[in-house]
Design a protein that fits this description.
By secondary structure, the protein is mainly beta. It is built from no helices and eleven strands. Strands 2, 4, 5, 6, 9, 10 and 11 form a seven-stranded mixed sheet that branches. Strand 4 and strand 5 form a beta hairpin. It is globular. The chain starts with a strand and ends with a strand.
C-alpha cells in the first residue's frame, strides 16, 4: 500500500525558507508523478508544483515561480519542495500526492499524505 508522509513545515518569517519532504513508501517512486498542493484557511486546495515520472518535467503555479523548487530523489523515495522568499500568502497546509499520471489536477492523484502546516508570519 502506497503511503506518503510530509515533513518540514513550521513557522517562518516573511522572506525565510523551508524545505518540505515527502517520503513515499510501499512502491518505487520512479513510476509515480508527485504533486504538491496547499490549502489556505477558508480557501480551496490548489496545486503548487508537480514532478512527472514519465519525462521528469516540472510544473510551478504562477504564484510560486522563481521561489519554489521541486526535486525528487528516487533512490530515497523522497520528493522535496524547497521554498524560498516565503510570503504570508504561502501559509497553509501542504500536501503531497502520488499518481501514475498525475499532473496539476487533484483528480489525477490517487494517494495523499496527511499534510504539513506552513505558517509565514512575523
Amino acid at each position: 500500500q502506497l503511503q506518503l508522509v510530509e515533513s518540514g513545515g513550521g513557522l517562518v518569517q516573511p522572506g525565510g525558507s523551508l524545505r518540505l519532504s515527502c517520503v513515499v513508501s510501499g512502491v518505487t517512486l520512479d513510476y509515480y508523478s508527485i504533486g504538491w498542493f496547499r490549502q489556505a484557511p477558508g480557501k480551496e486546495r490548489e496545486v503548487v508544483s508537480a514532478t512527472s515520472a514519465s519525462d521528469g518535467s516540472t510544473y510551478y503555479a504562477n504564484s510560486v515561480k522563481g521561489r519554489i523548487t521541486i526535486s525528487r530523489d528516487n533512490a530515497k523515495n523522497t520528493v522535496y519542495l524547497q521554498m524560498d522568499s516565503l510570503k504570508p500568502e504561502d501559509t497553509g497546509v501542504y500536501y503531497c500526492a502520488a499518481g501514475i499520471a498525475g499532473w496539476i489536477y487533484e483528480y489525477e492523484y490517487d494517494y495523499w499524505g496527511q499534510g504539513t502546516q506552513v505558517t509565514v508570519s512575523s
